[in-house]
Amino acid sequence: MPGDAALGTVLRDLRRARKLTLAAVARRAGCAESQLSYVESGRRRLHPWLAERLESIYDTGGVVKSLLTSGDAASCTSSGVRVSDDYVLHVQVPGGGGSVPISRRDLLASLGIGLLASPTLARLEQALGDVRADRDSLAVLTEALDQYQAAARILPPSRLLDALTSQVAVLDGLRRRADSTLRRGYLALQARYAESLSWLSEEAGRAEDALFWTDRATQWAQSSGWTAMTAYTFVRRSMMAVSFAGDGRRAVDHATAAFEMPGAPARIRGLAAKQMAFGHALAWEPDASARALDQTMALLAKPSEDGRELGQRSVVSDDLYAIFRTTCDIYLGKGESAITVLEPRLATLSNASARTATITRAKLARAYANVGQPYEAARYAWQAIDEAATLQSLSARSELHRAVPVLRQWHKRGEVADVLHRLRGDATTA
Asked: What is the C-alpha to C-alpha distance for residues 26 and 181, in angstroms, rounded to an integer?
């Protein structure tokens, strides 16, 4: 039976990150080396018994099992069917405590305004009673988040949203029972989960969910006294203004709030300045964009311990600076320098993050359109359209739609007409 190539890639990355060979893992898991190889290549399905053994070998805190069981939910959300606000989440209790079904609606109400009068949430509270709210549990949930974030570079958001939401439910229950010395740590980790859920919801095109989780990240960051995250949530709002509306001025407003927030570390102010540069470029303000980009480079070059886990981390610094600068150039209608910078980096970006590579291909489509090369623009657009659908990337789709006004001048060319038709269908579906 065919397997899941994307999940296989995640499993391969987990194994390689731990410097384990196929033979070593197969021996410990009690399976043939060829079976594990077929699972990693997507040629064979991952069975639940093998998922459980890999979970133990890789020590991922429930991540492997949650990704395996998320496949059915993914098939619904990726097909364009809207998921009910009141569907059931299955929360895995740490330490082998089994799975507890809870109402998603009740959970979100509880997280948002503190309502706990729900039978499903009461069952979860009871199930968590035997789990210690200590540093070990906090460490396990922190490691799990790192694994989910790595998987998000490859998998569509629908494969991850329920699993991350379930982990927030566990964190919220443990945080209420943690002693005062650990409570801030649990709150800060809740804020990190909420920020990841905000970004994944944005990529999935769910504006209301993205805003809900951004608000929760702000709430929990402020409660824990984490200024870096509080400021970064305004950077996230700036990103959403770009992705959902292409509103440069609104993006600048949100980013400025983060940039000017007292106590915000240099890294977060640098990411805010980057969003200001993007917003000014979208508003066709090249001088203001250039000034903000200079501030970005200067601030991101400074050492900054707080907030280092926030923002883009799958791309090395030099490439990140190049992407920032070329993105502004593309928004301002330029293309030559962007093509020169981005094309040679595609292979590296693909290895680091399939999602970032797809967004970069969408930007290259616009860059080639800007310099009057419709065939190359259409070629990159086709690749990005297909990959954006697979990965569920609103960021890539937004970049493609920003290229439409430029592409329309060649609407009589067959390859461009086909791209425009696909993008019109995408806009209607969205």
From this structure: 41
DSSP three-state, residue 79: coil
φ, ψ (nearest 5 deg) of residue 262: -60, 135
DSSP letters for 313-331: -SS-HHHHHHHHHHHHHHH
Q: Rounded to whole angstroms, what are the CA distances from 77 to 126, 157, 205, 415?
A: 31, 9, 11, 30
- Residue 84 CB neighbours (<10 A): 9
Written in H, E and C, the secondary structure of 274-315 is HHHHHHHHHCCCHHHHHHHHHHHHHHHCCCCCCCCCCCCCCC
> What pLDDT, in 10s, does the model give residues 367-409?
999 999 999 999 999 999 999 988 889 999 999 998 899 999 9
Report the distance separating Cα 341 and Cα 364, nearest Å: 10
Collapsing DSSP to helix, strand or coil, 3 comes out as: coil
> pTM score, two decimals?
0.86
Residue 325 and residue 380: Cα distance in Å, rounded?
Answer: 20
Q: Amino acid identity, residue 27? A: R
The whole-angstrom separation of Cα 29 and Cα 56 is 9
Take residue 154 and report the two structure tokens written for it: 């490859």
As a whole number of angstroms, the distance between CA 99 and CA 108 comes to: 19
Tens-digit pLDDT profile for residues 321-354: 778 889 999 999 988 888 998 888 888 888 878 8
Confidence of residue 198 (pLDDT cuts 50, 70, 90): very high
